[in-house]
């Protein structure tokens, strides 16, 4: 049975190790982009929110923070799903509970992002359209 290959030995040059860590992180992002449709949708929605924020002239910091929160939780959810599939390849109620709970974290963050978007965008949009 094939296993996960071991990580390379720790390099004594600190910068090399940091760069290697960035490479692993990039591999994780690329994997999520390739495999997780929800991740791609959330990236697109985050970029849309950023563009709308620029157009409406609202504070971009909350938009960036909540987008980072949603995307980070989606990455954690993806990692937990992969790990759960590794340790429990057949259906198990606890595996389902773990996956559902991780998905719920993404869902709650997405609801918060939606609420924040309404709070930031609606008044600015009404003003921009002359409806206020």
Give me the Rg, rounded. 19 Å
- The overall pLDDT average reads 94
Secondary-structure arrangement, i.e. CATH architecture of the domain at 37-128: Orthogonal Bundle
Element order: H for helix, E for strand: HHHH
Q: From the structure provided, what is the oligomeric state, counting identical versus distinct chains? A: single chain
Helix-strand makeup class? mainly alpha
Biggest sheet character: none
- Which range does the strand content fall in? under 5%
CATH topology description of the domain at 37-128: Helix Hairpins
Which segments are poorly predicted (pLDDT under 50) over 5 or more consecutive residues?
Answer: none
How would you summarize the topology of this molecule?
Elements: H1 14-35, H2 37-56, H3 60-87, H4 93-128
What features would you describe in this structure?
This protein is mostly helical. It has a domain at 37-128: Helix Hairpins. The protein has four helices and no strands. It is flat, with a radius of gyration of 19 Å. It starts with 13 loop residues before the first helix and ends with a helix.
Short account of what is shown:
The chain is mainly α. The chain contains 4 helices and no strands.
Characteristic terms for this protein:
132 residues, mainly alpha, Helix Hairpins, 4 helices
